[in-house]
Amino acid sequence: MDTQKPAEESNIEPAGVGSEAPTTKSVNSEFFVIKPSPGKGLGAFATSDIKYGTRILAEWPIIRVEKYEYTLADINSAFDSMSAADKDIFWALHSCHGQDPAKWPAQGPNPGLPDELRERIAEQHAARVADAPSILSVFQANCMPFRAGGGVYAVASRFNHACMPNVAFAWNDNIQKLTLHAARDVRAGEELFVSYCDELQPKEVRAWSLAHYGFACECEVCADDGVEGSPGFKHRVNREKLQCLADVVNAISIDHIPFAMHFGPSHANQRLMALFEVLSIMKEENMFGSQMCIVYRELAMVCEEKGDYDNAVVAARKELETYLRIMGPDSPMIPRAVALARRLKSRTVEEVK
Ligand SMILES: [Zn+2]
């Protein structure tokens, strides 16, 4: 991920179809090129119109750790096993070092945390406020999913962030690659963005998450969000509405809690209305990622609970259709979505009997 370093400071040439860059792999993509993005170093730009659901990249990382709570020692050890060519690519990526310590909590990690976790937070903090780039500061700024841990990718890590991304990413265990899919129709020339944070959260929370990558977001969702009538203001209002539907938002956040646990089994209509409202806002906000799949799944469950099997099937098929578009037919999520749609379909047949 390359978000802060101005293009003129970058020591690599834009890499794209037909151009050989000296320190990074050329991107032989029919869909995009990597080239300077104003104020953001390099970024990925569509070279043709891209249809919603198109797989634009499938990639194996240049450095990887298999555990989620990796330490400095884990990263340094993974770095030692990299090839010289991959190390060159790695060092050409953005680093999140050089941050102002005053912008981070002065007291350091919570003393109540286990020693190992406190040490991990302290290591990452030291890398962020250091004067020079380090293996950890580059890893942190570019880390994306890899199995149960994280990895840095020669190409995918070049995609910049937006709070309303047009590209969805996911680790695909079946093909052992990180995949990127267009999360809506994209026009030729548009910059391709992924989201580094939970974009359902309010701006203040997003800003805190993004500070870990070493930048302040000025995307169309974040910009002018306090100016009434501006597009940013509309996005703020929409995301505040999602916060008001807090139980629903919790149900679709990273630590997914089944929606039924929030309302209990006797409020199906209330849950149904809340889910429709969430779906409507998510569509308005172009949030067509995995969170939308979870909303469709919850919708299918609520319809089933109400005995409305026809609409339960419709919702389950929407979940499947969305996973197909943002993760592809080879994703491990597909059999699970197919199984739900089939189970609900069999209930409509039972009804007819
Ligand atoms: Zn933003």
Automatic annotation (TrEMBL):
Q: Quote the protein name from its UniProt record.
A: SET domain-containing protein
Identify the stretch(es) annotated as Disordered. Answer: 1-23
Q: Name one Pfam family in it.
A: SET
Q: Taking every annotated instance into account, which residue ranges of this chain make up the domain SET? A: 30-197
The source's domain of life comes to Eukaryota
The organism's taxonomy opens as: Eukaryota, Fungi, Dikarya, Ascomycota, Pezizomycotina
Which CDD domains does its entry note? SET_SMYD (cd20071)
Species of the source: Lineolata rhizophorae
InterPro entries of this UniProt entry?
SET_dom, SET_dom_sf, SET_domain_protein, TPR-like_helical_dom_sf
